[in-house]
Amino acid sequence: MPTKVPGAEDFVPDTHDLSVLADASQACRGCELYADATQSVFGQGSAAATVMLIGEQPGDQEDKAGAPFVGPAGRLLDKALEAAGIDRGSVYVTNAVKHFKFTLPERGKRRIHKTPSRTEVVACRPWLMAELDAVRPDVVVLLGATAAKALMGNDFRLTAHRGEVLSLPTTDLDLDLDPRVVATVHPSSVLRGPPENREQALEALTDDLRVAARLMGDS
């Protein structure tokens, strides 16, 4: 008999209540990432939000605070959203993976971000599907390759489709909604880039968010 692939589906309650989903996510054992993380970091925002922003995973500060995008990348995202004319308070913000994946250096205690594996992204996807079904946004913004592949498929190439208006694939996703989708880079990539290119990279991110802002206006 084949071994069951781990996943979060056994832990996701059948509800559209985001607070109930958030509470339930703390008990998730759908993959091994829960063992080292401080807590599950669920999405935040209004259930009536017309836009959902999806990143990769919580970082060190998000893991400690229990809230998404509150660290340096979150502050840069706030700046780009403001420049694009999007009120952070009007959107729902979450991540494809709900637990912080990290490594520890041989010396020191600073936890270093590690990209989630495809298996971990797929294992956590039932939480993301539950959020999408609860919020039912008109526009979804995918921040970074991990988030993009989580919904668009593993063959999706962010560099080829960045800033375009897309639709979710009709296969592999058990969702009864059809939001317009915009894929762009994760704000952390702007911070990791050369300092001399940072303003240009931030403006490019802002331009992609302006596409989402126009779609909001069309909703």
UniProtKB/TrEMBL annotation:
CDD domains: UDG-F4_TTUDGA_SPO1dp_like (cd10030). GO terms for biological process: DNA repair. GO terms for molecular function: 4 iron, 4 sulfur cluster binding; deaminated base DNA N-glycosylase activity; metal ion binding. Residues 42-210 form the Uracil-DNA glycosylase-like domain. It holds the Pfam family UDG. Keywords: 4Fe-4S, DNA damage, DNA repair, Hydrolase, Iron, Iron-sulfur, Metal-binding. SMART domains: UDG, UreE_C. PANTHER family: TYPE-4 URACIL-DNA GLYCOSYLASE, TYPE-5 URACIL-DNA GLYCOSYLASE. This is Type-4 uracil-DNA glycosylase.
